[in-house]
Amino acid sequence: MWGTGFFKGLGFTLKQLKEPKVTYKYPDEPVIMPKRFRGIQHFEPDKCIVCNQCARICPTGCITLVGKPNPDPEKKGKVIDTYDINFEICILCDLCTEVCPTEAIVMSNNYELATYSRDNLLKDLKWLDNNNQNVREENH
Ligand code: SF4
Ligand code: SF4
Q1: pLDDT at position 134, please?
Q2: Is pLDDT above 80 for 9?
Q3: Mutation test residue for ligand 1: of 42, 95, 108, the one with most atoms within 8 Å of CB
Q4: Would the annotation count 54 as a binding residue?
Q5: Residues near ligand 1 with C-beta < 6 Å?
Q6: If you take atom 3 of ligand 2, which residue's CA is the nearest one?
Q7: Are 112 and 120 in contact, with CB atoms under 8 Å apart?
Q8: Bridge partner residues of 116 (DSSP)
Q9: Which residues bind [4Fe-4S] cluster 2 (predicted)?
Q10: What is the pLDDT of residue 67?
């Protein structure tokens, strides 16, 4: 027959029904990450001066970039042509954004990278530019 342990357990379960829920309905409802969360980068091509510092400091070598001469003859320097991050090996360490002198690359609060193909984890300039939602407040 049922012992005291059963009723003790049942009592505990019924008590928990009244407690606030601690679970999320993910993925139906996105989880809101803390302000300082290091998520997938947002890249603004217009701000990039092709200094290469982000690629140089990256500990996993996952940034590849190519610049080209500024098409405006009045202006010196280069503009960015291609900018890719390989999220197969990016560890979201934040170093690239810390060294960027113009804040062309900043962290966001986005974390959704799940995919069926590894090829989809190579994100190009356009994708990173469009990843402009949930950029950290300090970078607005
Ligand atoms: S977050 Fe870290 S690993 Fe990822 S691209 Fe930037 S420097 Fe490289
Ligand atoms: S550090 Fe910033 S400005 Fe320099 S190449 Fe990287 S993104 Fe562009």
Answers
A1: 85
A2: yes
A3: 95
A4: yes
A5: 58-60, 62-63, 85, 90-96
A6: 48
A7: no
A8: none
A9: 58, 90, 93, 96
A10: 97
Comparison of pLDDT for 77 and 122, the residue scoring more: 122
Q: Is 62 annotated as a binding residue?
A: no
CA-nearest residue for atom 6, ligand 2, is 54
CATH classification of 4-139 is 3.30.70.3270, yes or no? yes
- Judge residue 104's burial from the number of C-beta atoms within 10 Å of its C-beta, 0-12 exposed, 13-18 middle, 19 or more buried: buried
Q: Name the residue ranges covered by the structural domains of the chain.
A: 4-139
- Nearest residue (CA) to ligand 2, atom 8: 48
- 62-84, pLDDT tens digit by residue? 999 999 999 988 888 899 999 99
What CA–CA distance (Å, rounded) separates 93 from 16?
A: 39
Cβ atoms within 10 Å of 128's Cβ, excluding its own: 20
